[in-house]
Amino acid sequence: MKLKYLWLTAAMLGLPYAANAEVCQAKFFHDGGEIEIVGSGLIQVSAKLNFSQVKKTSTQQCQALVKGYANYALLGMLSGETDVNHVMRVDGVKTSLSNPGVAKKPGDPDVDVQMLSLFGYGEPIRAAGQRFPAQSFRLAIGDPRRGPTTPVTVRMGEKTVGAQQRIETAAGQQSCWPVRYSRGTDPTVVNVRGAIIPLPNIQSQVTDWFCPSLNLVMRQEIMQSGQRSVIEVKSLR
User: Fold this and answer.
1) Within 13 Å of residue 5, how many CA atoms lie on the same side as its CB?
2) DSSP 103
3) Which residues on adjacent β-strands are paired with residue 224?
4) Contact 211, 218 (CB under 8 A)
């Protein structure tokens, strides 16, 4: 399963991943940099991302080759593993993530990396009460190597920043901003390895813990149907 399809199942309801230009200066954004992610609860994720071929044109423009692996399970229905092999490009507040040498066909559903906010929200957080606008993303569920994929829309409500708090992270205690929002999809059916599986309406309340000194969301907490999942950065270098 390619990364963009993995992130729909694992990150659509779990760890987001967008970016701002400060990622070019982040601790992990160098040759040999690494981020390891784990998740428990309804969303189980184990992923390791390695950065290489890092190029920095300026503090606002950079790119890197991101390789690694990810294993995931969602709602006890969808599970699998994938190799990660993508080029990440940052240009100001705009970020793209693409397969090297693979052209995207017009009309193909794709992951907009702003959906994944691991690296921020497109502009700096300045104060509690700050808001970021609602967004929607057209994505795809399924494994394109095994059959048709299912397009689906993910809607993310307005994001609201709470008061900064100190939390324990893999990098020690950090002062981090809680960013809260709703996330939801419509019910649909997906084709997984030839089996037709109903995917119910999925609504959740999300809190990202963005730690500005690391330029990362170090933890994401998801409440869904009264059950809590946590996805967090386990290590970085």
Assistant:
1) 24
2) P
3) 227
4) yes
